[in-house]
Amino acid sequence: MSRRPRKDVPARGDARPTVSVCRGCCCGTEKIPGVDHAGQLARLRSGLAGTAVVRAVECLDACEQGNVVVVQPSAEGRRAGGRPVWLGLVNDEHAERDIVTWAAAGGPGLADPPDILDLYVFQPSRRVRSGLEG
Ligand code: FES
């Protein structure tokens, strides 16, 4: 049996970027005060309707960075070299809007993120990354 990859098989991943919004034990709760958590998820969903998959996920094991949002590349973005980008302390509407703008433009691998998002990027441990990215 041949183990060579087939070129007609789509790359792993969705046709659209995926925005994973942590809603675990800390993110999305009163432990992070002063944030309209339900509104945040609703704004991300409405802003990215049709252009990205937005999903709420359980604790990503990076609670000190809450609210955590991970922008994952589409299949095309992954082929272009894009990798998941972890954003922490996403607790203001400016960051939300920048996430929407970036993901709607194609996300990792296909569009440059707004510069200001650099302030939110963090590198989780390999163990934590593997929990989301498999
Ligand atoms: S609840 Fe979001 S990282 Fe733990």
How would you concisely characterize the structure shown here?
The chain has helices at 37-47, 75-79, 93-104, 126-133, and strands spanning 18-22, 53-57, 69-72, 85-87. It is an alpha+beta fold and 134 residues long.
Describe the structure.
The chain is an alpha+beta fold. 27% of the residues lie in helices and 13% in strands. The chain has four helices and four strands; from the N terminus they run E-H-E-E-H-E-H-H. The protein has helices at residues 37-47, 75-79, 93-104, 126-133, and strands at 18-22, 53-57, 69-72, 85-87. A four-stranded mixed beta sheet has the order 2-1-3-4, covered by helices on one side. Strand 1, helix 1 (37-47) and strand 2 (53-57) form a beta-alpha-beta unit. Helix 1 (37-47) runs parallel beside helix 3 (93-104). The radius of gyration is 15 Å and the shape is globular. The chain starts with 17 loop residues before the first strand and ends with a helix. FE2/S2 (inorganic) cluster (FES) binds at residues 22, 24-27, 59-63, 66, 68.
